[in-house]
Structure formats: C-alpha cells, structure tokens
C-alpha cells in the first residue's frame, strides 16, 4: 500500500466530527494569521485576543495530532476510550473561540442593518430597545445566570448519557450538537453581523444595574465592534433548542428540568442585548435542521468509511 493510500485510509478511520474539526482548523488558523497581519501592516500592536489566537490554535493542532495518534494506537484504551467522545467537542469550542473574533477579516459585508430592519418590520420596534423598560437588578442577575448556563446546557445531555453508559444515544447527541455548532460557524462567515449591544449602543438609554454578576457576564462576551461578527444565527439559542429536543426524546425528566433554564436563556439573549429576534428564529431553524439531518450525514459517513476501509 502506498503512503498516499495509507494516508487516505487514516482519514476514513476518523469519526465525522473528528474530520470536521481538522477541516475547520486549517481555515481558522489562516484567518487568525490574516487578522494578525492586518495589525502588523498598520504598524499597530496586535490585540491580545488575536496573537493569543495563534497560540491557541497551535496548541489545538498539537492536541489534535496527539489525539489522532492516541486513537490509532489506543493506549490504556479500557480506561481512556471516553476521551475520543469528548475531545472533538473541545476542539469545536477552541475553533469557535478564534472564529468569533476574526470573521470580519474574512467577510466584511455585514448584514446587521438588514437584521435590524427585519426585527423592526416584525414588531414595529427594536425588541432589545423595548426590553429596557423591564430592566431591574434582579432580572439582570437572573438573566446573566441564565445566559452563562449555556456552558452547562450544551453538554448536560451528553454527560448524562455517558454516565448512564448509553453510548449509542450519547454519540447521536454529541454528533448532532457538534454539527449544529459547525453549521453555525459557516453561517457566521456567510452572514457576518455584529450584535445589538454594539450596533445599537447609542440608542440604549438605561443601564442594566445587575451588580457584579451582570458585569461578569458582560465582560465574558465583551469584544470590540471591529471583531464581533457572531450574531446570526444565535448559537446560544440553537444549541439550547437542540439540547431540549434530544432531552425530550432521550430522557423526558431531564427535558422538564432544562425547560425553564432553556427558555430563560433564550429570553436573556434579547434582554442582555446579545441578539436580534431574527437571530433567535434562525438559531431555532438551525437546531431543527441539525437534529433531523445529522443522522443521515452520520449514516452516509459510516457507509463511506466501511466501503473504503474494508474494500481497499
């Protein structure tokens, strides 16, 4: 067998989410380099999030290489096989962290003015501005917690199924969630849009008044207007909905536990000025699409893997 054939065979040994991570890593690295070069050409200091992005991606690339070696050689597999399930999700988040900051260096054609117009046409007002009348320290604290619950909601069904050793169901949920993320990343690049907290900043007339928790939430998502282009669709809402859909079919009790936090998270995206309502609608559409399409994509990839690995 030639080296090229062996190389191709190694690709087909990968799970779909592992291959997608590799495919997204390369353009993410190139985009980050382009962002750094932009500031170098201007003779300006490179903002920390951009030069830090290269370090982050290099570390991710090294971990991916180690991960592929680990999967191939399977050391201590009885005790470490679970790493194969969770690492692609970690790679997914690492890639997003860089992409979130650098989209505008790939596609400068923003669409947030169109999103604002759509919200205005649907409601006759801008929902994020209308919501100011409800600002209250208690609500700000509550919605700040709800928004940060995203990190728990996005993994809780997978962790639950892993603990219950329902491996087939866990893999189904993990793949659907990861594909939802990557579909969202692609749409971010095609439809770059800054969030209302930046675009409509001069139209807000009230402060949140949410204490230290509200400030922590704000700092967590606060980045400059020149780099934030990850509003459409809302991945917070997409991942929340697809998680609820999986919980409903996999473990109904978990669905009811997550329902109120999930609804609160969606409401928080508008209250906290992170998304236009059309972003939420698009996020829901993305979740539904990912939920129903991911099994077919998974079946196609497994069929392709089997055909190549066993017939080559």
Brief description of this entry?
This protein is mainly alpha-helical. Helices cover 76% and strands 0% of the residues. The radius of gyration is 21 Å and the shape is globular.
Present the secondary structure layout:
Blueprint: H1 3-12, H2 16-41, H3 48-73, H4 77-80, H5 83-102, H6 112-123, H7 127-130, H8 137-148, H9 150-163, H10 167-190, H11 196-199, H12 211-221, H13 235-250, H14 252-271, H15 277-311
If you had to describe this structure to a student in words, what would you say it looks like?
Helices cover 76% and strands 0% of the residues. The protein is an all-alpha fold. Helix 2 runs parallel beside helix 10, helix 5 runs parallel beside helix 10 and helix 13 crosses helix 15.
**Rg from Cα:** 21 Å
Global mean pLDDT? 83
Residue stretches low in confidence (pLDDT < 50, at least 5 long) are: 220-227
Q: Compute the separation of the termini in Å.
A: 9 Å
Please work out how many helical segments DSSP would assign: 15
Using the alpha-carbon principal axes, give the shape: globular
Give helix and strand order, one letter per element, not per position: HHHHHHHHHHHHHHH
Largest sheet: none
Total beta strand runs? 0
Classify the secondary structure makeup into a structural class: mainly alpha
Share of residues in strands? under 5%
Kindly give the count of domains: 2
Helix share bin: over 70%
């Amino acid at each position: 067998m030639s080296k090229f054939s062996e190389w191709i065979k190694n690709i087909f040994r990968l799970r779909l989410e592992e291959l997608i991570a590799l495919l997204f890593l390369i353009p993410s690295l190139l985009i980050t380099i382009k962002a750094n070069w932009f500031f170098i050409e201007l003779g300006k200091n490179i903002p920390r999030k951009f030069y830090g992005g290269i370090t982050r991606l290099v570390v991710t690339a090294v971990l991916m290489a180690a991960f592929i070696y680990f999967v191939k050689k399977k050391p201590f597999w009885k005790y470490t096989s679970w790493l194969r399930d969770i690492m692609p999700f970690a790679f997914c988040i690492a890639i997003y962290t860089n992409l979130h900051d650098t989209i505008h260096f790939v596609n400068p054609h923003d669409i947030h003015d169109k999103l604002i117009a759509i919200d205005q046409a649907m409601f006759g007002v801008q929902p994020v501005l209308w919501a100011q009348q409800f600002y209250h320290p208690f609500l700000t604290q509550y919605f700040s917690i709800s928004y940060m619950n995203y990190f728990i909601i996005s993994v809780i069904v997978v962790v639950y199924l892993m603990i219950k050793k329902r491996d087939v169901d866990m893999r189904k949920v993990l793949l659907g969630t990861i594909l939802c993320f990557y579909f969202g990343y692609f749409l971010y690049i095609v439809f770059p849009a800054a969030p209302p907290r930046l675009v409509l900043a001069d139209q807000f007339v009230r402060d949140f008044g949410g204490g230290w928790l509200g400030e922590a939430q704000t700092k967590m998502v606060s980045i400059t207007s020149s780099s934030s282009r990850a509003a459409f669709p809302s991945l917070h809402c997409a991942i929340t909905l697809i998680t609820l859909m999986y919980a409903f079919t996999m473990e109904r009790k978990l669905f009811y536990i997550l329902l109120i936090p999930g609804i609160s998270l969606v409401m928080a995206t508008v209250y906290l000025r992170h998304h236009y309502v059309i972003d939420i609608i698009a996020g829901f559409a993305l979740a539904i699409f990912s939920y129903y399409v991911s099994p077919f994509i998974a079946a196609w990839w497994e069929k392709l893997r089997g055909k190549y690995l066993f017939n080559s």
